DNA sequence: CCTTGACCTCAAGTCAGCTTGAACTGGCAG
DNA sequence: CTGCCAGTTCAAGCTGACTTGAGGTCAAGG
């Protein structure tokens, strides 16, 4: 594979050029040189970007992800960290599942006012107790049809 | 029940006074008057705050939540909106579940380097495809002991 | 009467993860 | 040679949900 310019990397990875420059500044990726002013990337950066996307999807911050790359560039991912994040996700999932069930009930509930519905009041109680916390919104990008892909590929 | 000052509302709801002022500014809550400069709140504001917490937990923004309160202050929650949010959560949950399973596998994987593991590479491919997106972190606050409080005061 | 301290207002700061804009550069097609 | 245009830098802006700080007010206790 040939070297890539930033537009090519952006095109193949789906990551905007501005974000790529930002990642470089943060030390998450590196170009292998310059042609004039222009950055030149090794195709391997695509895998690197995939790892970054994976980390982000799992809920790691960019700073945390940076720590997962050893100085030599090889990913050095602590399995304990992964397991901890999985547990984290598990808790989030349970929380969100409860909310989803609550919402579905409220949506279907025949009570004239939501406050008349005992189930609604139960969820409300839970929310007030701080049990549940706001989920994160997705970024500006959203190729939602890709959901099926992970189901097929990952599951 | 007596009127409450802002500190009392903060204590009982677990919401910091600064956030209460912010909510008032946004029109999410209202005080029933002033004693001197100081805001005076009706105890009903606690239920209101519980609703707000519920909305936040379900992933609604403050602006969206504001729209759910009719001008008279009664919650007027469109059941379609609730159902849509539930579907939203469902998608998020599926996404996170896939991530969690992937992480668990990677954590348990015996391959010396993660990149040697076929499963890891599959997840990676999925992440690169833009399938998965970052989840949201919870807010900084979590006064979980407040559970009992709302149970007593509001419900 | 005077101090204390909880409350007030308003502006600005915080955090993450980028995006946007202005001003500039340089390789290459014509 | 020239102009195009994709690339560059650096600084500033954005979103959301608040927090923090400076400076001001007021009711009550001593």
What order do the helices and strands come in, and which of them pair?
The structure is a homodimer of 155-residue chains.
Chain A: E1 4-5, H1 6-13, H2 17-26, E2 33-35, E3 38-41, H3 44-57, H4 62-67, H5 79-108, H6 118-128, H7 147-153
Chain B binds a DNA duplex (30 and 30 nucleotides) through helix 2.
Mean pLDDT of chain A equals 84
Strand arrangement in the largest pleated sheet of chain A: 1-3-2
Largest binding interface between chains: A-B, 70 and 75 residues
Order of helices and strands of chain A: EHHEEHHHHH
Helix residue percentage of chain A: 55-70%
Could you describe the largest sheet of chain A, including whether it forms a barrel? 3 strands, antiparallel
What is the SS-derived class of chain A? mainly alpha
Query: Beta-strand percentage of chain A?
Result: 5-15%
**Euclidean distance between termini CA atoms of chain A:** 30 Å
Rg of chain A, Å, rounded = 21 Å
Q: For this entry, what is the oligomeric state of its chains?
A: homodimer
How many extended strands of chain A? Answer: 3
**Could you list the spans of chain A in which at least 5 consecutive residues all have pLDDT below 50?**
137-155
Count of individual helical segments of chain A: 7
| Global geometry of chain A | elongated
